[in-house]
From TrEMBL:
This is DUF420 domain-containing protein. GO terms for cellular component: membrane. GO terms for biological process: respiratory electron transport chain. It holds the Pfam family DUF420. Keywords: Membrane, Transmembrane, Transmembrane helix. It comes from the Archaea. It comes from Natrinema limicola JCM 13563. The keyword Transferase does not apply. The chain crosses the membrane at residues 50-68, 80-98, 118-143, 164-186. InterPro entries: Cyt_c_oxidase_su3_a-hlx, DUF420. GO terms for molecular function: cytochrome-c oxidase activity.
């Protein structure tokens, strides 16, 4: 079933990527006023990092399941798993951006400076870089999947881009959990 016009896949990927990244950078930079989102109790704001770590773990599971199912030739289960992964990613991002907007930006690191410089910051930088790189790759793989019947996808770059996106996505989600543990459990 065709949902996206074939000739618009790259254009839609580019537009969605630019808009998504603009919103993320605006929220991270404190450019979105907290008055533009509904208020929540403090306990909700404080719970978001834990919820996002759980969402990340679930996404690791669904991405892995999707990868396994396509290797087994089960396209329908692959599609379901990858759409679930994308849904989890969107849920993660909405909660993350909401928290950034309400709190006015990223949380300061409460641990020692050496851990911050040599452990936390490099892990966070890699996590963020991979998340940024994943956005257009994931959109592109999804747009290809929505623009063609499953039988035609083998003649596109869907599998190649999907493998790269899934690998980077898995690493990014994993590093996100590590960052959460360092920031909210260890310190």
């Amino acid at each position: 079933m065709e949902y996206v016009p074939r000739e618009r896949v790259r254009l839609l990927t580019g537009v969605l990527s630019v808009v998504s990244l603009a919103v993320v950078f605006a929220a991270a930079g404190g450019r979105i006023p907290s008055s533009s989102v509904p208020a929540a109790p403090e306990w909700v704001i404080e719970t978001i990092p834990l919820v996002n770590a759980v969402i990340s773990a679930a996404a690791i599971g669904t991405i892995t399941m999707g990868w396994r199912e396509i290797r087994r030739g089960n396209v329908d289960r692959h599609r379901i798993a990858m759409m679930a992964s994308f849904g989890l990613f969107v849920g993660f991002l909405v909660l993350y951006l909401y928290r950034l907007t309400v709190t006015g930006g990223p949380q300061p690191f409460p641990g020692p400076e050496t851990v911050y410089q040599f452990v936390y910051l490099p892990l966070l930088a890699i996590h963020i870089l991979l998340a940024i790189v994943c956005i257009p790759l994931v959109y592109y793989a999804l747009m290809l999947a929505f623009s063609r019947p499953a039988a035609e996808l083998a003649r596109t770059s869907h599998a190649r881009v999907g493998r790269i996106a899934a690998t980077l996505w898995l690493i990014s989600f994993t590093l996100g959990i590590v960052v959460f543990v360092i920031l909210h459990v260890v310190y």
